[in-house]
Structure formats: structure tokens, C-alpha cells
């Protein structure tokens, strides 16, 4: 097929402008010039930009340069932790300074390319990064998570009271290194500390399955911004109306993600994704080395379809009630929940457990209150753990007071009143849904959190962003019973509505602005305007070491890949993403206006050096299916999903992602060239057949019990053309391209034609 020439790219760029105007592509250039000023004098370095911003900075003159000789030196007095590692509230056993040094080593390697040595020594050399403890423990701000960062011409010293505090110092250093882009770091001293103890990311990993590798990346991205707590919600069922669950309530998908090897409990675990005790041990070790602890949540007595399915006799069910409520009127239910926790509590290090306890039967207020108090005592007496629950008391009318040392995760004013709770002596954490609930593709909560609003208006003490001065709607910034807060990702639509990669995109983009306020609230006078903050936040986010889920391949221009197969699998995009012919895939002279093309069959495929691409993108290719196809024959594939020429029951081209299949209504005729292309923006994936837009990828929305025009943004699978698993499409392919932006009708015709002289 015709070679893609310079003129073609230029012409496309010109056409591309039209598309770009209508659908702006995020600007990749960002301004990293520090714009902050210091109150400490004119000639000294201004406050370095980091997220969350530093509480105190004393600028000096000059810079310090990290080199490949720099070592990370751990003070032998504290290398293994020790008495200075005071646990913070519910946090157990933070990692040692040596573990944190190793995390920093790995991160700096990825950012700078230097393999810095980690040494244990009380004598750092010139140019080293020295990690030590022994900072003044009487300094309330430093204890337990504050740190002192001193950058001077001799090197860097990070000193804290606890190893976790020192770790936050390494996050500051890492961010400065990223933004310096190889230049020196500003000399000066920071005294930095959080105003809120609890800085949390809560995730519903019940309704959507996430592999453990994803969960680790959530830890990496949140710990980069100094979140110290992850909260995992392990069980739930579809977010849909009560009546829609009936009468076939026990046929719906439900999630329980903890897989015991005890047969009594093993049966509750999901087949599509569940974590063993060993998985959870490894996960907690990983997050500890990132300064974090995990609050586990098994949610009862509501949201319990995963249990009532097996025990219908324990559920409440009638015309108006749903089968997912455990019946607290039945003593067997109490015993069951005790045994359930007895089985799993030992898997977790955290001193605090979430028992869920949200959205239960309003007619059973006192019974539910009794249940909550019972489990408070159960955890205290048997496991020396404290308990938290979702805000619920307003909707559980009753006379029994919920025990005051149960922390409430406030999420909705109609379920709990944070001001009232604090007046009655309860601890409260702020997860107020209108601000910090991220529920992909839901129409009632945020799809993406509003970072600008959060940055400018939100605080952990703000429970009514529209009425911040009203003391009956908000807490005081320094309220001792306010533990802090965070943000929450709920996946009510069971993962059909959004891919893992798109969830990660949403969460990672929300983490920075929330972190900014979780650390210091509005009490930080060094904070820059949102317009100055956002481009630097973006730059940091794009360069966080240890992340793969961002799925945005680097590209010099708008073409990420362009293969015309005239000269092997050469990439004409300029990115050098050349492909390889595998297992007998071969270039064939095909004529028919296509020149050379590639012949694929079951084992034969083309491998690209990439994996997937997150929106915005456009992907297209020519394909001529020949002979018979295996069921689920693959056109494109990656670890994130597949594009199938058909599936076992439907002859249409089908996307498969995260275990769900999405039809496209397109049937590729046999022995004939067709052009097929996809273009995704943030809200939909358009499907083009022979260069005309035919449809959108859609999903079944359980809320409405039918396929609605709910569009789906699929992650582009571009790891292989065909499949490495012996299931490639039988046929010839040509003109494969990937653009790093969405594309539209007229342009798609232009694109397709330029990869072939002959058109259908
Ligand atoms: C169904 O259960 C709900 C919740 O417990 C209760 O309020 C209602 O009275 C019950 N309805 C019938 C018909 O029993
Ligand atoms: C209970 O846990 C706390 C830490 O949360 C610890 O200080 C205390 O010693 C423990 N008590 C027992 C009896 O283990
Ligand atoms: C503060 O909020 C309360 C509760 O919503 C409301 O009744 C009251 O009028 C508000 N006060 C002011 C000054 O707006
Ligand atoms: C094939 O895809 C359709 C949607 O196109 C889906 O409804 C069906 O369940 C899929 N078949 C199989 C066997 O997965
Ligand atoms: C379906 O959704 C797309 C994308 O949001 C929209 O442009 C189109 O008009 C909708 N089609 C119908 C039939 O509602």
C-alpha cells in the first residue's frame, strides 16, 4: 500500500485543525516556571512548587544538583524503625526508613535514569540525600507525619519524628526533581506537616473487579500526593432502584473480593476477581512502603447480596424491600457477621475497621444502632480494633446512641449531620458526596471531580460548599473531632460503563486538588492560583514513577503509529514504534489498490511495541477476512481488551473489555476489503465502517434494565494486530494507524483513502 508521505501528514494536519477546533485536544505544553514568591527576601529561592504545597519555606540562594554519584543514605540509628515510629491514630507499623529509602531509589531511577545507591551510614558525603529521624517530637506539627527538608550545597537532609514523616519528605523531593527536569533544586529549608491526620482515598472494588496491580498503582498515585489511607469496600451489588431488584433479586451480580481457603467462606468470593490472604499481605506490604495503611470494609447489614444469595432465609424481602438486606431480627445473622469478620479481620494490619452499616432499613433504626454498637464492642474485646461506619444515623431513627468512638464517614446530609455528630462527641471524616464522590458515568454524582472547585473552595471542614460561613453546615477548621477526609470512587454500574483505565484516569486527575486541601486546608498562604497550579499538576501527574495505567504513549505528532506495510512493519509516524511479524505473519503483495498487506491467520499476528491508548484517540485499519473465522477471532488485542471480528453468538464486530462485551452492529463481509475505525473522546467511542460513522459503542445500564444510548469510552487495544493467543483473524490487514486524538467523519474518509488507492 502507498507509503505515507510528508505531504499526506501535512494535509492531515491541516484537516486535523478543523477537528481540533471542534474538539480541543489537551495542550501538552506546560509552564513550569515557579511563580510563587517568598516572604523571606528578594534574592532567595521562592517556595518550590509541590502538591500539596509546603506549609513553610525558608529560601536560600543557589541550587543543588542530583547526580549519578548521589547516594540515599539512611541513618543507622533509625534504619530499622524503632521507638520513634509512633503509630498515628489507627495506623499500624509504618515501614522502616530503609524501606522508604528503597522506594525513593526506585522512583528516582525511573525519573532520572540514575541508579542511586542506598547506604546505611551516619556520615553522608557531599551530594548525598540523608534520611534520618530524631526531629523534635514535642513539635506537635512534626509529630506524627511532618518533616524537615534541608537542601543546601552539601546535599539534602530529610529529618522527621516518624519514618512515615520522612517518607512524605521524599515525595516532596521527588516532585521537585520531576519539575526541575534535570536542573538543580532550589536550596532552602522546608518545615512541612499535615493539618489533618486522615487523608484518604476510598475505593469500591466490589462492583468492579480490579487486579491487584491496579490497586498498587492507586497507592502509588495517592501516596505521591501524601495520602496516608486507602479504604477498600469489598462487597456490594448493583447501584439500582430497589424495585428493580425484585423479584429476581438473587440473579444479579454481586461482589465479594476476599477469598478465604476456608470452604465456609470461600463460596462468597467472586470468580472474576478476589484476593487471597497472601494477596492482601503483599498488598499491605507494598502500600506500607508508600506510607499508607488500609482500612478494610465489609459492608453489612445492607449491600449484602453476596451473602443473602447463599442465605435467602436471612434476607428481608417483600414488595418494597430488597433481598440484599440481612434481617437483623434473626439472631443467626449476628452470629454470621461475627464469624465473617472473625475469618477476615486477621488479614489486615489496620487498627481500624469499617463495618459499613449504610443505607439499611429505616424501619429498624434501633435494631441497626444496636448492631453497630455490638460490633464496636466485638472488635474492641476480641481484636483490639476500633470501628468506623458510613453516616447513617439520621436515617436510622431510634433512641439508642451510637457509641462515640465510632468514626463516621460522612457522605450525605440526609444520612448524617456532621455538625450534630461532633456536638454529640463523634469523630467525623469528610467524604461529602456532592464534592468528593466520583462515580463514573453516573448522572447523579461527579464523573470527573471538579478540581478547580475543590482547589478553590473545598476544605476538609467544609460540608456545605455553597454556605461555608454557616456554622450549622460546617465544622471549624481545627475541630479536633474532624479526622480529615478524602475522596471516594464508587463503581455503581458494575464496570460495564467504564474501563479500568478510564477509572484510573478519573481518580488520578482528582487526587492532586483534594490532596492540596487535605494536607493544609486553606491555612496555607503560599498557595498559587488554580491557573498556575493546574499545568504543573498535570506535569507531575504525567511523570509519577511506577505508573502504567495512564496508557498515553509518547508521540511526536498526532500519529502515534502508522503502518502501510510497504517496507515491513515500519512505523511512519516518526515515533519508531515499528512492529514485528510473529508466528508466520507475512507481507503479501495483494494488488487491489493495496500494494503490500499482511496475511494473518490463527497463530500469526503483528506485535507493536505499545499496549493500549486511553482517549482521545482514533484507530483504524483495512481488513479483508478470508476463509473461516474461529469464534472470537481477534482484530486487535492488549492486556486491556480485545476487538473481535465477531463473538460466539453474534456476527458483529465486538469490543471486549474488563470481562464485558459491547456490540457494534458492524458485520465485516467475507473476502472483501472493509475499513474499520474507532474514535474515542471523553464521552463516547464512535465506530466507523468504510469511513462513515455507523454507531457508538454502548452499554447495558442495569439502572434502566435495558440497553440505552449510554455511550462507552473503550480503551484502544493496540498491543497486537491479531492475537498472540492463537486466535487471530483469518485474513489480510493493511493501513493500520493510531492517532492521539479523536477523529470525525470527513477526516476519517480522508485517512482511510490515503492508506489505499482502491475504495469499496
Ligand atoms: C416490607 O419490608 C419493609 C422494610 O422492612 C417494611 O417497612 C414493610 O412494611 C414490609 N412490607 C410488607 C408488605 O410486609
Ligand atoms: C491495643 O492497641 C493499641 C494500639 O492501637 C495498643 O497501644 C495497645 O497496647 C493494645 N492493647 C492490647 C491489649 O493489645
Ligand atoms: C444556616 O443553615 C441552617 C440549616 O440549613 C439554616 O436553617 C440557616 O438559615 C442558615 N443560616 C444562615 C445565616 O443562612
Ligand atoms: C456477544 O456479544 C453480544 C453483544 O454484541 C452479547 O450480548 C453476547 O452475550 C456475546 N456473546 C457471548 C457468548 O459472550
Ligand atoms: C446517542 O448518543 C450520541 C452521543 O452522545 C448522540 O450524539 C446521539 O444523538 C444519540 N442517539 C440517539 C438516537 O439518541
Summarize, please.
By secondary structure, the chain is α/β, with parallel strands linked by helices. Helix 2 (97-112) packs parallel to helix 3 (163-180). Residues 48-192 form the Beta-hexosaminidase bacterial type N-terminal domain.
Bound molecules: 2-acetamido-2-deoxy-beta-D-glucopyranose
Number of domains: 3
> What's the total count of β strands?
39
Oligomer: single chain
CATH class descriptor name of the largest domain: Alpha Beta
Mean pLDDT, to the nearest integer, reads 89
SS summary, helix count: 16
* Sheet with the most strands: spatial strand order: 8-9-12-15-16-17-18-20
Largest sheet: 8 strands, parallel, barrel
Rounded radius of gyration (Å):
28 Å
Q: Any low-confidence stretches, pLDDT <50, length ≥5? A: 1-11, 13-39
How large is the share of residues in beta strands? 15-25%
Distance between the termini: 15 Å
* Secondary structural class: alpha/beta
Any idea what the CATH superfamily of the largest domain is called?
Answer: Glycosidases
Helix content: 10-25%
Catalytic activity: Hydrolysis of terminal non-reducing N-acetyl-D-hexosamine residues in N-acetyl-beta-D-hexosaminides
EC number: 3.2.1.52
Family: Belongs to the glycosyl hydrolase 20 family.
Keywords: Glycosidase, Hydrolase, Signal
Amino acid at each position: 500500500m502507498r507509503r505515507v508521505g510528508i505531504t499526506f501528514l501535512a494535509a492531515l494536519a491541516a484537516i486535523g485543525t478543523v477537528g481540533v477546533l471542534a474538539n480541543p485536544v489537551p495542550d501538552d505544553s506546560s509552564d513550569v516556571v515557579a511563580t510563587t514568591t517568598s516572604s523571606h527576601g528578594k534574592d532567595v529561592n521562592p517556595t518550590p512548587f509541590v502538591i500539596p504545597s509546603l506549609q513553610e519555606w525558608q529560601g536560600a540562594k543557589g541550587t543543588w544538583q542530583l547526580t549519578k554519584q548521589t547516594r540515599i543514605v539512611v541513618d543507622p540509628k533509625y534504619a530499622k524503625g524503632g521507638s520513634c515510629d509512633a503509630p498515628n491514630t489507627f495506623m499500624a507499623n509504618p515501614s522502616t526508613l530503609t524501606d522508604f529509602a528503597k522506594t525513593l531509589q526506585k522512583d528516582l531511577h525511573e525519573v532520572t535514569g540514575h541508579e542511586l545507591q542506598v547506604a546505611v551510614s551516619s556520615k553522608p558525603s557531599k551530594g548525598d540525600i540523608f534520611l534520618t529521624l530524631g526531629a523534635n517530637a514535642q513539635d506537635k506539627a512534626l509529630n506524627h507525619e511532618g518533616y524537615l527538608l534541608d537542601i543546601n550545597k552539601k546535599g539534602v537532609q530529610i529529618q522527621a519524628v516518624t519514618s512515615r514523616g520522612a517518607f512524605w519528605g521524599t515525595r516532596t523531593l521527588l516532585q521537585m526533581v520531576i519539575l526541575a527536569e534535570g536542573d538543580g533544586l532550589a536550596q532552602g529549608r522546608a518545615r512541612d506537616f499535615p493539618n489533618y491526620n486522615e487523608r484518604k482515598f476510598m475505593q469500591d472494588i466490589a462492583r468492579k473487579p480490579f487486579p491487584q496491580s491496579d490497586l498498587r498503582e492507586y497507592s502509588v498515585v495517592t501516596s505521591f500526593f501524601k495520602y496516608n489511607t486507602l479504604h477498600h469496600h469489598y462487597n456490594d451489588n448493583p447501584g439500582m432502584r430497589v424495585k428493580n431488584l425484585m423479584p429476581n433479586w438473587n440473579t444479579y451480580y454481586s461482589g465479594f473480593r476476599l477469598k478465604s481457603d476456608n470452604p465456609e467462606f470461600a463460596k462468597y468470593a467472586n470468580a472474576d476477581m478476589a484476593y487471597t490472604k497472601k494477596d492482601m499481605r503483599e498488598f499491605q506490604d507494598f502500600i506500607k512502603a508508600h506510607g499508607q495503611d488500609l482500612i478494610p470494609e465489609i459492608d453489612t447489614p445492607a449491600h449484602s447480596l453476596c451473602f443473602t444469595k447463599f442465605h435467602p432465609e436471612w434476607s428481608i424481602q417483600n414488595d418494597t424491600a430488597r433481598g440484599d438486606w440481612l434481617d437483623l431480627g434473626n439472631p443467626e445473622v449476628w452470629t454470621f457477621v461475627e464469624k465473617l469478620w472473625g475469618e477476615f479481620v486477621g488479614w489486615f494490619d489496620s487498627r481500624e475497621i469499617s463495618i459499613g452499616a449504610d443505607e439499611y432499613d429505616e424501619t429498624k433504626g434501633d435494631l441497626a444502632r444496636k448492631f453497630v454498637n455490638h460490633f464496636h464492642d466485638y472488635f474492641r474485646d476480641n481484636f483490639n480494633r476500633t470501628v468506623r461506619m458510613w453516616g447513617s444515623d439520621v436515617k436510622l431513627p431510634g433512641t439508642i446512641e451510637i457509641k462515640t468512638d465510632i468514626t463516621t464517614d460522612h457522605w450525605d446530609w440526609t444520612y448524617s449531620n456532621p455538625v450534630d455528630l461532633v456536638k454529640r462527641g463523634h469523630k467525623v471524616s469528610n467524604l461529602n458526596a456532592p464534592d468528593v464522590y466520583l462515580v463514573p458515568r453516573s448522572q447523579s454524582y461527579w464523573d470527573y471531580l471538579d478540581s478547580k472547585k475543590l482547589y478553590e473552595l473545598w476544605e476538609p471542614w467544609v460540608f456545605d460548599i455553597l454556605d461555608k460561613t454557616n456554622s450549622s453546615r460546617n465544622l471549624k477548621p481545627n475541630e479536633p473531632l474532624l479526622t480529615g477526609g478524602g475522596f471516594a470512587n464508587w463503581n455503581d454500574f458494575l464496570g460495564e460503563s467504564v474501563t479500568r483505565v478510564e477509572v484510573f484516569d478519573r481518580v488520578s486527575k482528582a487526587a492532586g486538588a483534594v490532596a492540596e486541601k487535605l494536607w493544609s486546608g486553606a491555612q496555607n498562604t503560599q498557595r498559587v492560583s488554580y491557573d498556575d497550579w493546574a499545568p504543573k499538576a498535570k506535569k507531575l501527574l504525567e511523570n509519577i514513577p511506577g505508573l502504567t495505567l495512564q496508557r498515553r504513549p509518547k508521540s511526536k505528532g498526532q500519529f502515534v503509529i502508522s503502518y502501510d506495510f510497504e517496507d515491513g512493519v515500519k512505523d511512519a509516524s516518526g515515533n519508531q514504534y515499528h512492529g514485528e511479524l510473529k508466528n508466520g505473519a507475512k507481507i503479501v503483495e495483494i494488488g487491489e489498490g493495496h500494494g503490500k498487506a499482511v496475511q494473518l491467520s490463527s497463530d500469526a499476528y503483528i506485535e507493536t511495541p505499545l499496549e493500549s491508548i486511553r482517549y482521545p484517540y482514533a484507530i483504524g485499519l483495512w481488513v479483508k477476512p478470508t476463509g473461516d473465522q474461529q469464534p472470537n477471532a481477534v482484530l486487535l488485542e492488549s492486556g486491556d481488551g480485545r476487538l473481535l471480528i465477531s463473538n460466539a453468538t453474534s456476527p458483529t464486530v465486538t469490543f471486549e473489555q474488563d470481562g464485558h462485551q459491547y456490540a457494534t452492529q458492524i458485520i465485516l463481509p467475507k473476502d472483501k476489503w472493509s475499513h474499520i475505525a474507532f474514535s474515542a473522546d471523553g464521552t463516547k467511542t464512535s465506530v466507523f465502517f468504510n469511513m462513515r460513522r455507523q454507531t457508538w459503542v454502548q452499554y447495558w445500564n442495569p439502572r434502566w434494565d435495558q440497553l440505552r444510548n449510554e455511550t462507552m469510552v473503550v480503551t484502544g487495544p493496540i498491543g497486537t494486530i491479531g492475537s498472540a493467543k492463537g486466535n487471530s483473524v483469518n485474513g489480510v490487514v493493511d493501513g493500520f494507524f493510531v492517532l492521539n486524538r479523536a477523529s470525525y467523519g470527513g477526516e476519517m474518509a480522508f485517512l482511510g483513502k490515503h492508506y489505499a488507492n482502491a475504495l469499496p
